[in-house]
């Protein structure tokens, strides 16, 4: 005999998903102490004329990560970047195209977040119907779909990642000064997260930076030592909080 509720389960309709990828692309402008997010002005409905995160539907035979890299390649040129999968957003009603009288189907967004340095990231100019622009993370407009939620989630992930992972060194040059590391952290976390002296002492004590013995003149003051990130020395610290206080 059929179990209670079996007929009800059989009558339920399975969701017809369309899978998209949305990228939260952050750039760190240490010169002006700004964390920026790349937004795109939409040239089609829904939300024509509104700002949104750069996104795309996944093509046949294309992996999610390949779609994320395709978005990046279409929007910016950059040599050093960090990219990882962020979260999957798929709640009912997140996209107006889910309405029965529209295209139909559910729209699932697999989001990624990327980090680049502002001075290295060149925006790719598109045709006159679309526009890409950097926005200060504190001054972003109301975005299309649920992209404000995705952006906020990405911002929190970025802040958390800086505490226990070496993502800062994925976007810094191969050789860098300690002040450049500090400027990147203060741009994302705020100037009050740690003073430079404590940050420098803690960072060197962790032992995953190698002093190259080279120095560089960048602005006023004495020449600064150049360091290199040592991935092997960092390995034992993986997934441990790096609290620079």
Sketch the topology as an H/E string, one letter per element.
HEEEEHEEEEEHHHHEEH
Beta-strand level of the residues, as a percent range?
25-35%
* pLDDT averaged residue by residue: 89
Summarize the main sheet: 7 strands, mixed
Number of helices: 7
- Indicate the percent of residues in helices: 25-40%
Low-confidence stretches: none
Structural classification = alpha+beta
Task: Say what oligomer this is.
Answer: single chain
Rg from Cα: 22 Å
Shape by Cα distribution: elongated
Question: Strand tally, please?
Answer: 11
Distance between the termini: 66 Å
Describe this structure in words.
With 245 residues, the protein is of the alpha+beta class. 27% of the residues lie in helices and 29% in strands. The chain has 7 helices and 11 strands. It has helices at 6-11, 64-75, 147-164, 168-171, 178-189, 196-206, 231-234; strands at residues 17-29, 34-41, 51-52, 55-57, 76-77, 82-89, 106-117, 122-123, 131-136, 209-216, 224-229. The strands form 3 sheets. Strands 1, 2, 3, 4, 6, 7 and 9 form a 7-stranded mixed β-sheet that branches. Strands 5-8 form a two-stranded antiparallel sheet. The chain has a two-stranded antiparallel ribbon with strand order 10-11. Strand 10 and strand 11 (224-229) form a beta hairpin. The longest helix is centred in the middle third of the chain and has 18 residues, at 147-164. The radius of gyration is 22 Å and the shape is elongated. The model has no long low-confidence stretch (mean pLDDT 89).
